[in-house]
Amino acid sequence: MPRNLKEEVVFTAIMAGLMVLVMTGYNVAMAQGLSAGLVLAILKAYPLGLGVAIVLDLLVVGPIAKGLAFKYIINDYMKKNVVLIGITISVLMVLGMVTLMSFFGIAVEGKLAGGHILATYGHTWIFNLIVALPLQLLIVGPIARGVLGKMQKVAAVKNEETETIEEEV
């Protein structure tokens, strides 16, 4: 878990950056098929999707997911195991982000008009969840947590060196 703003920013950038890239590719491929313009369409859609995802992650879904997790789900036993806390928050984050980003995706594609809005949204939501949950739990989450862990180790070494220098003085 990130311990300060710098770690939170790096962790969110990696997590959102990779998740949005893969999910944008998946959704564009689902919408237009594997065509010659697929890569260009993904690159075109990526910046807006990333911006929206970061805002939603930091301001809406993240605080709600963490609040729900620590208030209703994570018990004393789970608090002893950081992995269980991470998985719980990751699952809640995926549920929240899929819920909001699926709506964003159909809005950007202009599919909010018409008589089948709920069917379109439900289809989009379930297909996104099927990809996003394993992507988060098996690939992107471990990568982001690995980078965060290395950052935290470097910070711990620097703190030890600073404390050693202060003790010598």
Automatic annotation (TrEMBL):
The chain crosses the membrane at residues 9-29, 35-61, 82-105, 125-144. Keywords: Membrane, Transmembrane, Transmembrane helix. It comes from the Bacteria. The keyword Transmembrane helix applies. The keyword DNA repair does not apply. Coiled coil: none annotated. Pfam families: DUF2798 (PF11391). InterPro entries: DUF2798 (IPR021529). This is Integral membrane protein.
